[in-house]
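Appendix B, example 12.
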Amino acid sequence: MIGADGGMYIKVFSDGMWHEWAALGKPAVGLQTSRPAAISGLGFMDVYAIGGDNLLWHRQWSGNHWNEWARADARPTAAANGLTAAIYNRLMTTTIDPLVRAGAAALAGPLGVLGYAALGSNQHWIVWSAASAQQCWEWSTGEHMTRIIDMLRQGKPVIVGLVNPHDIVGHQVVVWGADIRASGPQGEDALPGEYDYLYIYDNELPGCDSAALQYDPINRRITQLPGGWDWKGVFARDDYKPAPPPVL
């Protein structure tokens, strides 16, 4: 609520009881008398109110103290913009750019031995797109599943390429865990409903910690969950090299 002094006051319910009203003050521009709002979660709380400048302001509890009042639409600093640009460029050079290069190479015709070799694991976008679904399943559940499991056992996250069944431009995700049946990744003696799973981080599913690639050995199909997208194949990007963040 807004007090008689024009500042914000908050009353918190915790440990089964209401605590006393606490003063949160106000930004330098003051606060309007319109009703403020608050959101909270484990270890944090944000309160929002319209300032005297008719803009949205907020103050946050960070676990052991209240931060100062700040504009909710405050502009990022030059350093923050630089870091964002660096992260974006890094993601582009390790994800989108390889797909574009592989697609352009495929459209341009024969690359020659050296040009083809220079693509590294990106050559799989070309080869797997042209291969049959059966062949891609065998590669995905054989050699490349072995590579993925070996890298996970070494404590390494694995960048994998997802081959689109309809287009040479696929997608990339990070595998961080797996649940593989003892009968083997290709599913010999598998029963309906028995699946292998690769647990993944997908940048297109921010905040989702349950995303996975489901291997169906009966129908020989790889499905991404949630979403239900089917992929023709999954290959390990074992030529990916991590890099430290840029120094700004």
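The two ends are 42 Å apart (CA to CA). The chain has two domains: 8-71, 78-236.
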